[in-house]
Amino acid sequence: MPLPETKRRGRRPALDPAERRRLSARIAKMVLVDRLEQKEILQKLQKSEPRLTHIDASTVSRLYRFALDSGIVRVHIDENAPYKPPRIEHLERELMAAYGLQTALVADTSGHEEILEANLADDRLHQALGQVCADYLDTIVRQNEIVALSSGRGVFYSCESLFNRHIFDKRNVRGVKVVSLNGNIAAEVWSMESPDARRAMDADISSSWLARAFPDAQLIRLSLPVAVQSPEMITEWMADGPGRWISPLVWEERAHQAMSSSNPLPDDEVYVPTLALIGVGGVRPNSGHRFIVGEHEPMMSNLQPELGKMIELLDKYTQNGKSAISCAVGDLCNRLFVTLAAQKGLPPAVLAELNEYVQYINERLLSITFEQLYYVPKVLVVAGGASKVDAIHSALEWQAMGWKQPLIHDLCTDKDTAMRLLELRRTFSGRRAQ
Q: In this structure, how many other beta carbons lie within 10 angstroms of the beta carbon of residue 10?
């Protein structure tokens, strides 16, 4: 008489196909993204899913192999990834000495120029700068850092590069807050994946990339437009909500509270950034500058007709870079300023008219003021290219611009821009000595 069938001792229950795929995907994530060891994976699974107490190391290995073989995990190798150039140390030392910078990063982009449409070539340059700047950011962002970002190509690519570097291995830096310094302008950069595709590069977008590089970063999106209809509305927008993060009055109040040990800062309030990553741009006709590209965007309508008149004036007197004044108006955190080259080279009447347009536009911008940067302990600028030399030089010559103290502490730029900045410094210093 045959014995009744008995369940084999120690037999593990089989996983159904859907459960197998789910568990394989979870294990693959813990291996590739969380970088956990096999022992830690077992502990996590057994703690979160009590019915899997029978699972062992060999099962984890088999399920991970299944994730690789079945297409749950896909590997993407990008041969068009941004080029990371070497740095030129002697130019870095010269820039630091010439402009009193704390740190200078100079990327050697020579030999990697591409014959591309101007805007795309400018993007490729800033992609290379972003690689160098991301390396530096990786070393200076600390626990509980409050990082503030402006719009700009260099800022965007720096944040994206840092995220890509830590996509599977997030930096073990906790308590980071990431916030924007200005409203959105619907600005775009060219996509690496397709020459016809573009991606947004507003400060809110760059902030989201940077925040994802850290395990528990808090992202503060302003979600504000670049400009409003009247100066009075600026006060209203900054009195409540996300606008308080860029309010000059709030920054001044927080700075005084931070210096007074008797008035500790509340945990749920606005903070002055401890690190700012910003770009410097040059507003030139027929260029890829975001004010030019977005001139007819709905977000820019509040700056018309003065913006259009300013661009016409720039086109007439700079001849799109063919005159001695290649860049008459620069921008920093979307806030405009007349460059030193324009202050010296334009006729007084034209200069006065240009200053009126710049003042009109700045009074309607939802962005921090230059004076607010005084409160930030470290301001890192990432920018380069021939069209921005005059703007970067003006921002570095803070005394000549009438600012009370330096706005820029660290600079990341390319070789050609660095050499031109050193030449301008020698020329500028010679004129002041005469």
A: 6
